[in-house]
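Weekly structure sync, notes
Attendees: PL (lead), two postdocs, one rotation student
Agenda item 3: pending single-chain targets
PL asked that the sequence for the first pending target be pasted directly into the notes so everyone works from the same version. It is reproduced below exactly as submitted, 475 residues in total.
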Amino acid sequence: MDKTYHLAIDLGATSGRSILAGYDGDNVVMSELTRFHYPMLPIRGHLFWNLPLIYQEVIKAMKAAAEKLSESGSELSSIGIDTWGCDVAYFYADGSLAGLPYCYRDTHTEGAVDEYSKVISRETVYAKTGIQFMDFNTLFQLHTLRRNGAKVIDSADKILWMPDAVAYMLTGNAVTEYTVASTSEMLNPATGDLDVELLDSVGLSRSKFGPIVQPGHIIGAILPQVQEATGLGEIPVIAVAGHDTASAVIGVPTPDTDYAYLSCGTWSLLGIESPEAIINDKSFGYNFTNEGGIDGTTRFLKNICGLWIFERVRAELGLQDADISKLAASCHDSVCQSIINPDDPSFANPRSMVEAINSYCRDHGEEVPVTTADYVQVIYRSLAHRVAEMLDVLKEFSTAPVRRLHVIGGGSRNSHLMQMLADDCGIPVVAGPAECTALGNVLVQLRGCGRAETLADMRRIAINSTETSTFTPQV
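Predicted structure, written out during the meeting:
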C-alpha cells in the first residue's frame, strides 16, 4: 500500500503546532513541523484571540509541509484542524473577519450561567443539551454579548467555532463540526443539531451557523489563493473531530471499552465513551457533560481544572525554564499534606495563583505551602485526589467496568503525577500517548481519505503506532 501524508493542525489554548504524519497501511508516524504561540490579547478590558495570527501560522505550516514533502517527491493527501471548544469567530457575508473572537477566559462571562437562568432554567437547558454548566460555554458567551449590546452578533453573517473558522478561511465553505459544536451548550444530542429554542433565547437564527457535519466529512479543497501562498495543490480540508478532546479520545490505544480516560493538560477531562447521551437528574446533579464523539458515541465526562494551576505557579515563581521532571520529583522533598479543590472558582484566573493557593489553604484550615516543593506537592496531590473523587462518581454511570485509566496528553509524560493517580484511583494507569490529539486528528483524516473505515480500525492503527507506560497502585 502506498504511503500517504496528512497534516494535523492542533490548536490549544495560547499555543499550537503542526504535525506531519505518514501512514503506510499499518501505522502512523508523526513528526512536528512547526510550533507557535498566540497569547490572549488584552484589549479595552477584554481578552481576545488573534485569529489572523493563528491563520498566518497555519499557512506557514502548510507551506512547511509542502517544502518538506517536495524533498522526497511526495504529496500531501489532506489537512485536519482541531482546537479548544466553546469560543467562536464571526464573519461578514463577504468572508472577512468581523472583529476578533472573545477568549473563554474573559471575565465578562462571570456569573453568566446565573444570568441566563433568568431566561431558561438550568433544568431545561440540561435536559436539552446534557452539557456541564460553565460560564464560558458558547450559549452563555452569546447571551453575555447580547446583554452587553455587542453589535457583532447581528452584523455577522456566519458564526463558526474555531476549527470551522480556520477551515472556512482556507476553503470558503462554512460548516459546523459536530464534536466541537457539542461543547457549546447549544447542541441537542436527541436531534443532532443546534437547538432552535436556545438559539431563539439569544436572538439568533439557525442560518447564522453552518450545517452540521460529522468527523470524516470533506469540507472542501483549499482556495486558489491559499494554494499559491503555500505551494500546495487542491488539498482537501477534512472535518476531523474538531474539539481537541474528541480527537484525543479517538486516538486512545485501547482494544476494549473497559476503561475511563483522562485527557491531561491545561484542563483535565475525565470521562468514558457511552453509546448514548446520559441525561438524567443524577448527571445533572453532578454537573457531568455529554459531548459528541465519533460514530454516534458520547463523551460523558467531567471538566476538571488541570495543569493550568501548575503552569501559573511555575511562571510566577520564575521556573518556566526548569526541568518539569525535576520539579515533579521535588514532591518527595515536601511533607506538606494540604489538599485544595482545583475546581474552586478562585483558581480560574487569579492575579496571583500562589496567593490563591495560600488563601484557599488559610480559609479551609490547611497548611499553607512554603517551598517550591510544597506547591508542586499540593497541586499534584490535589489533582490526583480530585480525579479519584470524580472517577468514583463516573463509575456509577458506566455500563462497562472501569478496569484502568488511560491518561493521554502532555501530562501523561509526568511519571510522578501518573503514580499519584494510580495510587489515589486504585486502578492501573496507562500513560500515553502524549500526542493523542494529533493522532486522533490524523486517524479521522484517514477515514476521510478512505483508508480507515471503522472506529475499531482507527484504534488498531493507534495501538500499532504508539507506546504506553503502565503504573500500578502502590498503596
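Discussion points:
- The radius of gyration is 22 Å.
- The chain has two domains: 4-244, 254-432.
Action: rotation student to compare against the earlier draft before next sync.
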